[in-house]
Amino acid sequence: MNPSQITEWCHSVIASNAVRGGTYIDATMGNGNDTLFLCRLAGQSGHVWAFDIQECALQNTKALLLANGCLDQASLILDGHEHMSQYLEPESADVICFNFGYLPGGDHNLSTRTETSIEAIRQGLAILKSGGIMSLCIYSGKDTGFEEKAGILTYLKTLAPKEYTVIVNEYYNRGNCPPLPVFIFKK
To answer: What pLDDT does residue 110 have?
Structure first.
């Protein structure tokens, strides 16, 4: 594991805490790297639901999963993460992953937004099983993501400590607005 890479750090924490063969959600499909990771964690007995609003994200993810023999383990949904409760039942997911910001290699003007991201987290917490984990990779920098980061962190402070443990990590010795890895454990 390369702990300096936020996604590898998050994957390591998820893998060490997740139930294998479960139901997983990649709430921000992007180029499919988290979807592939979750498919491998799911194995043949589990399933992954992946969401994105961009057709290119869905196509990139589909190609990656096909190349790795995992396409049958995933449902790729062309819809916003703030609609995930239309697809999954409450208390049905073991793991939910988010990467907030814009699609790597995509249009930087099209990125996640504070309102829909907070709604997606709220819905995700209802969908998450007791004992489940939610991973949030919060990217901010240059001219994007600062409002979203502040809004998400403010929302997370309102979560009941008897129901959730929220751990906010920080790359303490990095400049230039490094990403913020956050984990939510549902009790």
So the answer is: 74
